[in-house]
């Protein structure tokens, strides 16, 4: 995580900070009391921080799904962040891993994941006369994201989309507000590392989680371990590839120790939603 500067962030080509704040305030106030699906990433963190600024505290609840598909340490991070920001937080257990439609890992896996999440958040929102909101920005709308459809079909709102925020603007305003997560790497669910058609299981999710944790422990903060039977295909940002080659022995040892026989490095670098290419 980078040290937060006290200077104005560089938002060249973007809207001004004043306009970003006004747009987001309008979107948050228009929705009103909300239950926020809080992953600890920069998008949902900005929504949560904005709700804390623009709504009364008793109108805001952060909810983090407690699931085997969540990377280790993330639940604790979410609890800590919500506490530091003075926001009420809860961690309902989702049951997507008991749904064969999710476990079969077809192209609509994310639909059933978000449906399981909404099964938990809807009653919370109803009891509080609130709306479920998700941290989705306009750049997320073009990818294959059936989970967004599932949430929208159940009445969830996307305030960052309502306010027209791009990913660059999300990070820019989060940096301006000095949110520690402003440059945090994305942490999508562990199931996103498993190619469509390969069944999801708790032991497999645990193996991927341990492999990624081992790589973070040796200095690679933004990493994906894509699972292909006994082969791990590692994706890192392009800037890390040369360093990774120089540390190949450590990488192979770290990933082999959790059960992979072959360890490969994807020279294409880290690409969000990479496995979605199989659906096109």
Question: Could you explain the architecture of this structure?
Answer:
The protein is globular, with a radius of gyration of 19 Å. By secondary structure, it is α/β, with parallel strands linked by helices. α1 (about 15-30) crosses α2, α2 packs across α8 (about 165-175) and α5 (about 110-125) runs parallel beside α6. The chain is built from eleven helices and seven strands. Strands 3-2-1-4 form a four-stranded parallel β-sheet. Strands 5-6-7 form a three-stranded mixed β-sheet.
Task: Please outline the helices and strands.
Elements lengths: L16 H15 L2 E4 L4 H13 L5 E4 L10 H11 L3 E3 L9 H4 L5 H19 L3 E3 L12 H8 L5 H4 L4 H10 L25 H16 L6 E5 L2 E5 L5 H6 L1 H9 L5 E4 L15
Please tag this protein with its features.
280 residues; three-stranded mixed β-sheet; alpha/beta; 7 strands
Short structural description:
With 280 residues, this protein is an alpha/beta fold. It has helices at 17-31, 42-54, 74-84, 100-103, 109-127, 146-153, 159-162, 167-176, 202-217, 241-246, 248-256, and strands at residues 34-37, 60-63, 88-90, 131-133, 224-228, 231-235, 262-265. A four-stranded parallel sheet has the order 3-2-1-4.
